[in-house]
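Appendix B, example 12.
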Amino acid sequence: MDHEPPLVGASNLLADIPMPLGNASPSNLTPAGRIDEWTDGELQRAIREGTYPNGHRMPIMSAQTFRVFSQDDLDVIVAYLRAQEPVESVVEHKQGLSTLATIMTAIGMLPLKDQPDTNVPPPAVEKAPTAAYGAYVVGYADCALCHGETFEGGKGGILPKGPSLRSVAGWQEADFVTALRTGVTPGGKNLDPDEMPWEAFGKFDDTSLRAVYQYLREL
C-alpha cells in the first residue's frame, strides 16, 4: 500500500493473512472515485463513524479511531481530499468480511471497534508540545492498536505485537524525535518498518512528535 498521493486505493490488505478473512481493498480517495458523489457531511461521516452514506458499516474504516478528530481537522482533511487531482484507480474496490472474520470480530479476535455512541466531534486541542496534544495525536494514530490500550505491549495475533512504550520515559525528547525520523532507537536498534511504520509517523511535524513524547512520559 502506497502512503503517498495520489490516494487511488490498493489491493486487498488481508491478502497476506493466512486465513480467509475476506476482502479489504481501500477506496480511491481522489475525485475520480465515488467520494466525488458524496457530500462533505457524508465523507466526514465515513471518516469519523466508518459508515457509508446508506449507513452500512465499512469493514476497514470501522477499525480506525479517526472519530477523535476535531471538527477543524476533519474539515481540513475533507478539503484536502477535494483538492486532489482526479486519478482513476487500477485496482478493483471490494470490501467484505468472510463468515470466519465475522465470527472472530464477534468474539473480539479482530481489531474492529464499535460505532461511536455519538457523532458529536470532540473539542479541539491546542496544537503545542504538550501531553494533552500528544494524547490527541496518539488517539488518531491509534498507537494502542499494536501497543495495547495501556501502552504496556500489544497482544499480537494478526497485528504486530508492539512493545511497551513506557520505556520511552527514559529517552531524551530529541532521541524520540530522531527515532521516528530515522527508524533508529537511542540504543542503535533499527525499527522494522513492517512492524513499526516509523516512516509514516516520521512525517509528523516536530510539535506533534514532541507532544507524543510528553504524553508517553506521563504514562
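The mean pLDDT is 85. Strands lie at 22-24, 95-97.
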